[in-house]
Amino acid sequence: MIKNVTLTGVLIASLGLTSANAQIKIGDKALSAVSKGFSALTFSDADAANLAREAIAQMDKENTVAPDSDPYAMRLNRLFGKHKNENGLVLNYKVYKKNEINAFACADGSVRVFEGLMNVMDDNQLLAVIGHEIGHVANHDTRDAMKEIYKKEAAIDAAASQSKKVEKMTESQLAKIGSAMYDSHYSRKQESEADIYSYKFMKRNGYNVNAVESAFTILAKLGAGPSNIIDQMMSSHPDAATRALNSKARAEADGLYKPYVQQPIVNTVPQPAAKTTTATTAKKTTTAKKTTTTTKKK
After folding, report:
1. Largest CA distance in the chain
2. Quick check: is 133 catalytic?
């Protein structure tokens, strides 16, 4: 049975659900940067990125990553390959071969998209979701949330946080950080700002902005039944239907609104265009040279 989770995490900014075995497991090497000690007062984007880099490496080991030759990976590369450097962020991306509605971005710029999400969203809708996840990184949500979890697990109080360096953490404390990623939530304000980032991302890159509303509408429908896949959203979060309406209002304000029609979803290896062979019959034209003999009269 799929274990539902919230739409957001700490190092990760998840917009779907994930199963228990997709959770990051912290070992001796994962998050080793923490043991070196960061400044509790000036925990930076770089600090969060360093932690995320090791955590996502471990997570990639715990999940089946689609190889470059996989049709899902090929589709994501076609869509997202041009956005490796997006608005000052250096991004990398992979597909997890799990039939779950999920996507997330980490503080180090790692973007992970689950196969299940690619099965229900077309290209524009998928880009809208990824744009939302990138928004959490660009808006420093992942950094701020990670700092709070880090301080909590390191048992740092207000006074200790003013010290130059935090104390080393035990391995059990590091493991708790991984678990906390899926238990923490972003605020309504942070979610709304990530939605706005997604809209601007679509508009800036010339994509159909109406796909943002459509993507949230899909999530709202998926979460409407008795087996609500997003039922662990915090009450402080705007629900998917409301977020769809807000996205529609933005498009209307820009004079860009038009009901979005979902395009065909293609997760198969692109087939090369059939070559059209035109049989050409070469006609040999023989030009007979006429020789004209002129007889001079004497």
Report:
1. 132
2. yes
Q: Would 1 be classed as within a structural domain?
A: no
Residue 58 lies in a domain: yes
Tens of pLDDT, residues 212-228: 999 999 998 887 544 33
Say which residues have a Cβ less than 8 Å from residue 252's Cβ, sequence separation at least 6: none
Cα radius of gyration (the chain): 27
In three-state form (DSSP H/G/I as H, E/B as E, the rest C), the secondary structure along the chain is CCCCCCCCCCCECCCCCCCHHHCCCCCCCCCHHHHCCCCCCCCCHHHHHHHHHHHHHHHHHHCCECCCCCHHHHHHHHHHHHHCEECCEECEEEEECCCCCCEEEECCCEEEEEHHHHHHCCHHHHHHHHHHHHHHHHCCHHHHHHHHHHHHHCCCCCCHHHCCCCCCCCHHHHHHHHHHHHHCCCCHHHHHHHHHHHHHHHHHCCCCCHHHHHHHHHHHHHCCCCCCCCCCCCCCCCCHHHHHHHHHHHHHHCCCCCCCCCCCCCCCCCCCCCCCCCCCCCCCCCCCCCCCCCCCCC
The pLDDT tens digits for 109-159 are 889 999 999 999 999 999 999 999 899 889 988 778 777 766 666 554 444
- Count structural domains, the chain: 1
Domain that includes residue 204, residue range:
20-253
**Euclidean distance between CA atoms 56 and 35, whole angstroms:** 17
pLDDT at 194: 93
pLDDT at 18 over 90: no
Question: Would residue 71 count as lying in a domain?
Answer: yes
Given 86, 133, 153, 213, which residue is catalytic? Answer: 133
Instruction: Classify residue 31: in a domain, yes or no.
Output: yes
Entry pTM: 0.72
Chain segment 29-62, per-residue pLDDT in tens: 434 444 445 555 667 778 778 877 877 888 888 8
Residue 145: what pLDDT?
Answer: 72
